[in-house]
Amino acid sequence: MTDGADRQAFEQAVEHHRAGRLQAAERLYRQVPPSAAHHADALHLLGVAALQDARHDEALELIGQAIRAAPEKAAYRLSLGQVHAAAARLDEAVAAYRQAIVLAPRLADAWFGLGVALQAANRQQEAIDVYRHLLTLGQRKGDGRI
């Protein structure tokens, strides 16, 4: 595929994914070659699709590949935390959310996921502290939204 065709396939895959057509999205994500600029994103979103289909082991592998390809992407760590949380691997979820926060300290979804995982792990005080911090993110922004 050419760069333009790779980009088009990736964009079509994202459209299918947003519309809930996971099989069509996965087929197109898999067509993005390793040399393409969006390869790590395709791996990540393949992992998200696997998570949405409750294929946790596959999701972990794909998101792990995306992280190895682009370790600076906080969104990939966020998704890793979501997979671990869905599989009831709470310690791993907490660790992944914390890694996402290190990469993007204002990523509200990571803070929220961390709070939920801590709460599910019966670490109530830590969860409360995280939720309090999450509230301050919106206040710092100045518009009341997180």
What do you see in this structure?
This protein has eight helices and no strands. The protein is elongated. 75% of the residues lie in helices and 0% in strands. With 146 residues, the chain is an all-alpha fold. The longest helix is centred in the C-terminal third of the chain and has 18 residues, at 124-141.
Brief summary of the model shown:
The protein has 146 residues and is an all-alpha fold. It folds into two domains: 1-71, Tetratricopeptide repeat domain (Serine Threonine Protein Phosphatase 5, Tetratricopeptide repeat, Alpha Horseshoe); 90-146, Tetratricopeptide repeat domain (Serine Threonine Protein Phosphatase 5, Tetratricopeptide repeat). The protein has eight helices and no strands.
Largest β sheet strand count, sense and barrel closure: none
CATH architecture of the largest domain: Alpha Horseshoe
Residue stretches low in confidence (pLDDT < 50, at least 5 long) are 142-146
CATH superfamily of the largest domain: Tetratricopeptide repeat domain
Radius of gyration: 16 Å
Distance between the termini: 40 Å
Beta strands, count: 0
What descriptive keywords fit this protein?
146 residues; Serine Threonine Protein Phosphatase 5, Tetratricopeptide repeat; 2 domains; 75% helix; 0% strand
